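User: Modeling request: complex.
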Amino acid sequence: MTIQFNDETFRDDYSFRNSPWAIKRFPFPFDKDDYMYSVNMEPHERVRDGSIFTNRFDVDEHYVSEMRDRALVLDQDPLRCQSLPHMTLAGWDLLELIMVSKSEDYPDMFELHRDGNKWRWINKPLGIDDSFTFLDESTLPYGPMEYITRQTQGDFALLDQRDDNLWMDAGMITTQADWSLDFDIGMNFFEWHAPVPLAAEKGIFVRALKFLLNIQQGSPARRLNWTMTVNPLLDTSPENYHKWGVQKTTLTPENIGSKQHLRVELQTFFRLPRSNGMVFPIRCYLCSFQDLMTVPKWGRRLHRVIRDLPDELAEYKGFIANKPLMLDYLSKFDDGLPTSPGIWPDIETEPPLQK
Amino acid sequence: MSKFEFPPSITSRPVWGRLEARAGKHHLMIAEAEGAEAIIDIATPELMAKSHIIYIPKDTDFEARLKDLNPAILHVGPSYSASLQRIRRILLDAHMGLQVYLTGTEGMMGQAMNEAVNAGIPHTAIQTEHRGSTARRMQCVHCKGITEDVELDPFVCSHCGLNLFVRDHYSRRIAAYQGVCVDAEDPGNIPEQKRIYE
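Assistant: Request completed. Predicted assembly structure:
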């Protein structure tokens, strides 16, 4: 299928919009009416054609505009993309993984032609046609990780595996939920997760690490994570928090439906063949409350999840001050009817709102 | 001198130990201020005969007592940064079997640990003991500037002037804790300053 790419912004006038297609395939992260941390890992396999789980690296209508936003972030702060010296090979692994996956999954948009180490990469949506020598950095305009992640939606953490741990030794991080690559680079799995409340005492990180260390080549895994963002702002970095933090105070009962966004991360985990490292893509999807409410099941469920969420989590996710306003809005979309299990919208089978 | 017990914290926060004399061909000891007392506590004639002590007094005066220990080399440096080239040179010349001992403030130990790690010594093999001031070395997450010896929370970034709160999240690579704007969501509303461990 051919995608019509939006011309939109994730800052200033915030012209970002989801089409009805994008709303229907939005990765709603709650599979039941309440939420607590869990490892919630599953194989990253193709499910439901057209869903965001169809391809290894999902490309959607926001692709071109997201890449433009990434370039703006990097112009202002080049430290959002860093790679420790020993991570170059993992960068090549990542470049290969993405080029092969995209050219196989989206042959109408991406082409990869390989003749030994002489490669030609064609990215039609971004108008790129580059020939280069695989594993020779001097033949690309950026390092391999930066080159390919300037052309791929989502943040990317490149992890080295040693001492039975994973080390965040490289990354392209421009759409992060409030953590700093520049600060966290070089940390191990437990250290970079240190600020997350509750999860460590539940043993989440020990189990998650054990799972991740065992991921094999060709068998990637995935999970969903979520937070809240006022305005469709991709760059919710700590670096710029002193600029965007104040936007959280602009919500009113009148504008909350369009301004408040559920921010969902599709986190996937791939083993890399040459470096034996891992790549951890963190793809951000945004959807406004008013668009989510067009799916009756999601309206009912989101109200229940937010209502029953422990305050510690609302605090950590940064929306505790706006929680009452959210609940006032969301309660109008909860008629008390039961909801079907799983994350899918089930528009045909779930009853419309009864109030 | 009583030792300060840091309250339990998150996993990125460093945990400092207690120095002990270890077997080794050479011993590099970097002591800042009251850290000199941690060296005095473990000193034996055998250990001192193979020890190179770098002492950074700040506002203390342990030079005479350290000299009485008869270390192989005692160097008194006026500040950490003034001692840095010397530390790098010692690490560059180091052979297998060098033991590293760091004692003093968290900021000094963190920076010196980085130097040792960059020289190829695993951070888990480096001994540390906190002594003296509990002030922190802080990095502003916004402008990336480092503010040394932060005792109060929140504090003003010495580079960009933002009011920052003191987090426990710590980067070994930067050898600093993270400071984040405290009034981003309510500009001008700065909480009253407290001592960090108050």
